[in-house]
Each structure stands twice: as C-alpha cells, then as structure tokens.
Design goal:
Number of domains: 1
Shape: globular
Distance between the termini: 19 Å
Order of helices and strands: HHHHHH
Strand content: under 5%
Largest sheet: none
C-alpha cells in the first residue's frame, strides 16, 4: 500500500515539473501537447513496467533508482543546454529534450514493475499525471507572475525534479 502512495507522490511531482517546464516561454502550452506528453508517459511507463517485470528477478531496484538519477541529471542538462528564451524548453526544431524525458518515464515504469503495480494503477496515475501537469502549468504561471523580473524563474521546475531524486535515493 505504501508503494502505491509513493508512486502517486512521485507521479504528481513529475507532472508538476513537466507542466512547469511547458510554461517557460510565458504562454500556455497547447492542449494537444499536454495530451501527447500524457500518452507518452502512459506508453513509456507501461512499456517500462512490462520489460521491468522480466528484469525484476535479476536487477536490483537500487540500480533502477541510480539509472533514474543519471537520466534525470541528463534530462536537466539537455533542458538547460537547449533552453531558448522565447521558445522555452520544448520547441519544434529541437527534439533532443524528448529522448531523456521518454527514458525518464520508461525507467519510472520499470521501477513500478518491482512493486507489481496493476494496469489500472497505470491508468489512474496517468490521470493523476495529467492533473498534476495542468496544476504545474498554473503553478508555474503564478510563480512567473510573481518573479517576472528574475531571470531564473523558468528553471524553478527543476527544483521539483531534484526534490524527487533526493527522496528516491534516500
């Protein structure tokens, strides 16, 4: 039961982070983009959970958590290196940020395989991820409205990702 709560907790913070990253250009993301990211999240976590069930017998969950940490750091690095002040983190000409994000979702699902989560839990956490993305979008808009003079306000969602990583490694 605790594993379900921790998965929902991490999913909510991951959704807050991704939703906040979409507002980095100070405009709302399109609804299609949000639905595409939720579909990628659902597909990648399901695939990770499916493949992780085969590896659960001989791979440690600590190894998966360390891989999640490395991929998250790579995701932050790619986002920081590809950030454009007017286009944000995700823009049409650059797809290098999407790869680490999909891998992050994949290994997130692979970790779920160790907790033996059901398919219905994936559907429910995908809905929670959608709601958290919408909440993260509006939270980031509020943060940027209050800190509009600070140049680092688009990077605040990375704090949520680092918060998840620190808790996962403990």
């Amino acid at each position: 039961m605790i594993s379900i709560f921790s998965i929902v907790f991490y999913t909510l913070f991951l959704g807050l982070m991704v939703g906040g990253l979409f507002v980095s250009k100070r405009s709302l993301p399109s609804q299609i983009l949000i639905l595409i990211v939720v579909a990628i999240f659902t597909g990648a976590t399901f695939l990770g959970m499916f493949l992780g069930s085969f590896f659960a017998s001989f791979v440690s969950v600590i190894l998966i958590k360390m891989l999640l940490f490395i991929i998250s750091i790579l995701f932050i690095f790619f986002c920081l290196s590809r950030f454009h002040t007017t286009l944000g983190f995700f823009y049409s000409n650059d797809i290098t940020v999407w790869g680490p994000m999909i891998l992050l979702f994949f290994f997130f699902g692979m970790e779920w395989a160790f907790y033996e989560i059901s398919l219905w839990s994936i559907i429910m956490t995908s809905l929670a991820f959608l709601l958290a993305m919408i909440g993260g979008t509006y939270l980031q808009i509020l943060i940027q409205d209050r800190t509009w003079r600070l140049p680092f306000s688009p990077f605040i969602p990375f704090v949520w990702l680092l918060f998840i990583l620190i808790i996962k490694l403990l």
